Amino acid sequence: MALGFFSRLKEGLSRSTQKLGGGLTGIFTRRKLDDEALEELEDLLITADLGPGVAQKVIESFRTSRFGTEVTDEEIRLALAQEIASILEPVAIPFTPDPAHKPHVVLVVGVNGVGKTTTIGKMARFFSDRGSKVMMVAGDTFRAAAVEQLQIWGERTGCPVIAGPQGADAAGLAYEALKRGKAEGADLLFVDTAGRLHNKSALMEELAKIIRVMRKFDESAPHSVLLVLDATTGQNAVEQVRVFRELVNVSGLVVTKLDGSARGGIVVALADGFGLPVHAVGVGEQVEDLRPFSAMDYARGLVGLPGTE
Questions:
Q1: Which end of the chain is more exposed for a tag (fewer CB within 10 A), N or C?
Q2: What is the mean predicted confidence (pLDDT) over 55-75?
Q3: Is residue 111 annotated as involved in ligand binding?
Q4: Burial 132-162 (b: 16+ CB within 10 A, else e)
Q5: Torsion angle of alpha carbons 159, 224, 198, 236, nearest 10°?
Q6: pTM score above 0.70
Q7: 194 is in an annotated binding site
């Protein structure tokens, strides 16, 4: 990650950092790491959205390695960053299309408003800038704004967008796009989808139909299913992962909207709870504001330490 991106990431994590960093300073202005201090630290980690599972792991590690010693908040920050990074490292996996599939079909799912369409546009730019031939499908056909937004990204990136009239059959669009992508030698095909989670059964049917119809042309499609999550929703993101894993075979996560109101600890809770790859994080509206996920930079930003670069 470039230094500028880390600065924006750290700014985005500011809400979590203030809660976590301020709490650490309050607990550990040089004091013995005893049961009382560990209990306060556990409460702090839970309220900072890291979740009880992560909190328990960190506390047990500290109890084993540092119990009874005098520590400062700086020492605890460093140790905590290492603990968090060790949880995040296994899931910090960049998204890499499989060249064996042409096109590599990416189904992008998530509730309305999390940034699915913008994420597709940014990923399209990222890969087209690196020489890949990218196509996009405006599969959220009931929301005219989503179709228009993807078409704008198509103009920006020079990537074709397959769209139909409002209310068109999303599965049919995806099928036609897959046929066209194969014929034109596309490397990547991103399929936008609806996110009306309030009607779970209808959404399940729609996603299942898209997959079923695409498999009539390519029985291995989709090759990736990316779930886009809004970091500002905190613990609600955990429930969204659970629900979408019931609907489709989620293969990886993209976390957006890590702005000043974000609850960044949730990424750690997701990594610990589900172990799904976190491919990228977004910190703003610009194309370059969606970047591959760096475990150590994220962990250091979360506890208020400078980046590794």
A1: C
A2: 89
A3: yes
A4: bbbbbbbbbbebeebbebbeebbeebebbbb
A5: -110
A6: yes
A7: yes
